[in-house]
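Help! Submission page says 'invalid entity' but I think these are all valid:
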Amino acid sequence: MSALEFEVLKKDKETGARLGHLVLNGKEFETPIFMPVGTKGDVKCLTNEEVEEVSDGLILGNTYHLWLSPGIETLKLFGGLRGFNKWNGALLTDSGGYQVFSLSDTRKISEEGVTFKHYKNGSSLFMSPEISIEIQNAISSDIMMSLDECPPFNESYSYMKESVDRTIRWAKRGKDAHKFKNRQALFGIVQGGPYKDLRKYAIEELEKIGFDGYSIGGLSVGESKEERIEVLKYLKDIMPQDKPRYLMGVGTPDDILYGVENGIDMFDCVEPTRIARHGVATTSLGRVNIKNKEYENDFSPLDPSCECETCKKYSKAYIRHLFREGEMLSYRLISYHNLYFLKNLMHNIKEAIKNDKFLEFKNHFLKKYYK
Amino acid sequence: MSALEFEVLKKDKETGARLGHLVLNGKEFETPIFMPVGTKGDVKCLTNEEVEEVSDGLILGNTYHLWLSPGIETLKLFGGLRGFNKWNGALLTDSGGYQVFSLSDTRKISEEGVTFKHYKNGSSLFMSPEISIEIQNAISSDIMMSLDECPPFNESYSYMKESVDRTIRWAKRGKDAHKFKNRQALFGIVQGGPYKDLRKYAIEELEKIGFDGYSIGGLSVGESKEERIEVLKYLKDIMPQDKPRYLMGVGTPDDILYGVENGIDMFDCVEPTRIARHGVATTSLGRVNIKNKEYENDFSPLDPSCECETCKKYSKAYIRHLFREGEMLSYRLISYHNLYFLKNLMHNIKEAIKNDKFLEFKNHFLKKYYK
């Protein structure tokens, strides 16, 4: 038995947006799916029960953060992250590569791996494809990522070529190091920035190695929305058809819609919980910045169309008061809403694909969202 | 019909600890009762549903903080605090006096009231007995407090006498200003520091004015435990027998036990949630400082005897990891436990009084608590 099974059940007639069935160690999911991020084991502010309510049961853990704390030994002792944080759902881990590149000012890349600084105490750390897999094996996620280098989008062609080649070699080394193939799936990561031939080359080489799914990296790293959509459009037809496609770190409502339109099956993003801690809610009528004075005496919920626990009970005025007073409950209430909103969006997206009405749904949604 | 009804149902044979029945606008409670503090409308980190789970349904709101935000106008617009924060239970408010004295470095007390500085922006504010009542009327709590001055415990006798007299005059003015006597009860506050004759005098004068209950102020303000217990012992026999007695701002397990032993019916304290945010849990085996290295790989819950949601699910090791990583979920999980612990303590106290075994229970509890 394989840790991951995947089937495309249907494609939207107009766009080709994919409705899929994903099975992870016996747990079943419909795709496209959005995965909340539990950076350090928890989705910030929320308990497992709440994450169950506002997700489809698959969340992401960050390998880099979990490596630093609680660390491999504790994770092993508890039988993996889920023995530790008691999450009952499915779990995907990133490779740690993104944080190695984004959270450290200085780093040294060699064929062997990356030497970089601990984001808190500055001590020297080393990450290799094998170490990344070792940590992810200790976390015991259902889906793991190969260690990749994630250069800036507009890195030079020559550097990007060198980097893509190294990422492919790292992917092979990661696969070789992976100990528990029957219970942890492994994805390869397609890098290449804006260079179509490099993206194509990366896909072909990763397919030769063979992975359970393929991730698109190097997007949402500073490129424009147009550049992002162009890459997605290009990848749509050349990504392996029968494997899940995961667009890493992308998760605003419009990015999700453009992703789905271009054949993406899986998304993750810290945004819903991060903007919540800045007092911003995602709603069917666009973003609501709860700090605004106009909400001071507003009896209405964050989103009038939403049926989440936050919107069923609390007014904008009360959440604004809590936020202005620095009460953590406000982060929690908005985080809950923002994730619920995305869960609901994914539900509506799946319904739209089932009915071959994805484009109509997308246009209707975006029109309301951007008023 | 009165906003408050109270009856002493039984006294513990050995100690005289009181078991009481309190009715607040139709909502019934058993005393002794502990009230979690919702300073700014929310009990920090927790939703109303959770506060219901870890309290007996009566919480405290801080008049000073609610006055500054959301303010009287918003509170009136929402029909009181409970229209705003959606708390379904009962509500007690303090007078704001304690914060006026504790949160401002400089203040000027006159017969009319107190001029002091806003604790955040330093602007000049004025609080009088009438203003305190006006705010509490706007909050629409079930039980209100008269504005009192709260001098340091070891203030001179002559100043304390002057202050007690003023507090009594303020109590009379507050009662006169109170608009909604049939739906909001009003308590008088007994000050007097360590001076027994002043405490006795305060009680007699407040009784002449007539209040729905009597609060003991000026404790937990720097005096020793022995000094505190001596005041409580003295007050035990001279406080009005047929009215609820509220020991303000006191709520460690041992202070509650000594309070109950000396006839106290009501307690409140920010401690359970405040120490939670410093990583400290109250347990049947004493305090647990979750930061301690010894808990790094500890599979056991915060309190092995506890059946709260935190203890049913999460290990010390996981909560320690969350706390060390600054994850707000840790504050929430410990706050929930700490309040549940007190709710359970109050339950056991009431059972002990019913069975005339209060002293046995107290000694057993404290022996375990202090090992």
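Support: the input was valid. A stray whitespace character was the problem, and the output above is from the cleaned input. The mean pLDDT of chain A is 96.
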